[in-house]
Design a protein that fits this description.
Order of helices and strands: HHHHHHHHHHHHHHHHH
Radius of gyration: 21 Å
Number of helices: 17
Shape: globular
Largest sheet: none
């Protein structure tokens, strides 16, 4: 059965400017590094080094949500991506790193236990059977409603579980029949729970930025103004005393707590200003961005692995280190050692998405399309 789409004229689908793509890769790298620095600053990993930059780690997760919404919307631009292709692409992207991250966490935690230095496990997960934790995390069900079941010591995994629900909701909104879309999205939201739903606007804000960027109707001067405004807003946030929504705070989600997402949303707005501004003023910033394009692109190819692999590897590095925590040799061993291992692992995980795509393509049934 052939699709009538084959007889339709090819649509011209806008593409991102090269400078904008480099900016997104750069932000991805910097956000992953900010989360690493946040965790590395913990006393048990470095004796408190870089604690002054801990604020950036929390805001970096907000940026990741915005970036994710923008890129997923970009991947389906033009409406020519089928529901099946969308599902295969998302599964390949996620499991290329999530699967190895869970296995790596198991290996690191067992090694730490054997070395007499068991890694920290979130208190909410301490009494849950390990197999339940593993399965719930593998299916991205470990952070729905009021539970926070993290497998082993991989605390950063929580945000991936949030993000996968946003993938699901976006896919339902795109591919369900029109009469079922609202019901489908509401059912997904009801299953995910209020903590995940509260941060969904960050992801949707990223998706809403895409048409603004692709239309490219902002002038260069306004672009520069937006860049400065975005950077200024982000720099002001630590001194603003505005509340931020802490997804790991398991108090009941009331309307008052929903209002706490002020810093989260303003972080999204500041990042949005920079994206639109750089795209508009790309001719002015092109020399700088294109000069760093190659190394930034290479590093971006390991950013997802850095985000999901670093925490259990930090636990293992401290257990293996012959130097006391907080000494400079230990800090160097833990930081550079973890980066080296992640770079090698990314070569066979994150950078092998095509192999995962072929796997899920074979596993997912092909539903014949009825041509009307």
């Amino acid at each position: 059965m052939t699709s009538h789409c084959a007889d339709m004229p090819e649509r011209i689908v806008p593409r991102l400017a090269a400078e904008t793509s480099v900016l997104l890769d750069l932000v991805r790298v910097l956000a992953a590094l900010a989360v690493f620095v946040l965790h590395f600053s913990y006393h048990r990993f470095s004796g408190g080094l870089f604690w002054q930059f801990g604020f950036l780690g929390g805001r970096a997760v907000d940026v990741f949500f915005v970036l994710s919404g923008f890129l997923i919307a970009y991947s389906v631009r033009g409406g020519r991506v089928s529901a099946r292709r969308y599902a295969v692409a998302r599964l390949a992207r996620v499991y290329s790193v999530a699967g190895p991250a869970l296995i790596l966490t198991l290996a690191c935690n067992l090694a730490c236990l054997a070395l007499g230095s068991p890694g920290r496990v979130p208190p909410s997960s301490a009494d849950i059977p390990p197999m339940v934790l593993f399965i719930s995390n593998a299916l991205f069900l470990g952070d729905v409603w009021d539970i926070h079941w993290i497998f082993g010591s991989n605390e950063p995994y929580w945000s991936l579980m949030f993000e996968c629900w946003y993938y699901l909701g976006f896919g339902l909104a795109l591919y369900l029949p029109a009469r079922l879309r609202v019901v489908g999205v509401l059912m997904a939201a009801a299953l995910a729970g209020p903590r995940i739903v509260v941060l969904a606007p960050l992801w949707l804000f990223g998706a809403a930025l895409l048409p603004v960027v692709l239309r490219d109707r902002v002038g260069a001067r306004m672009g520069v103004a937006l860049i400065l405004a975005g950077i200024g807003l982000f720099a002001w946030l630590p001194w603003s005393d505005l509340p931020g929504f802490a997804a790991l705070d398991f108090a009941p989600v009331t309307w008052a707590r929903v209002w706490d997402a002020q810093q989260n949303m303003l972080t999204a707005v500041s990042f949005g200003c920079v994206i639109v501004g750089v795209n508009a003023a790309r001719r002015l910033v092109s020399p700088v961005l294109m000069a760093i394009a190659r190394p930034v692109t290479a590093l971006a190819g390991a950013s997802f692995a850095l985000y999901l692999f670093h925490y259990p590897l930090l636990e293992l590095s401290v257990a293996l280190s012959p130097w006391p925590v907080g000494s400079w040799p230990q800090r160097g061993f833990s930081s550079f050692g973890v980066f080296a291992v992640i770079w090698l692992l990314s070569r066979v995980t994150e950078q092998r998405k095509q192999a995962w795509s072929r796997l899920f393509d074979r596993m997912m049934p092909r539903v014949p399309v009825r041509v009307v």
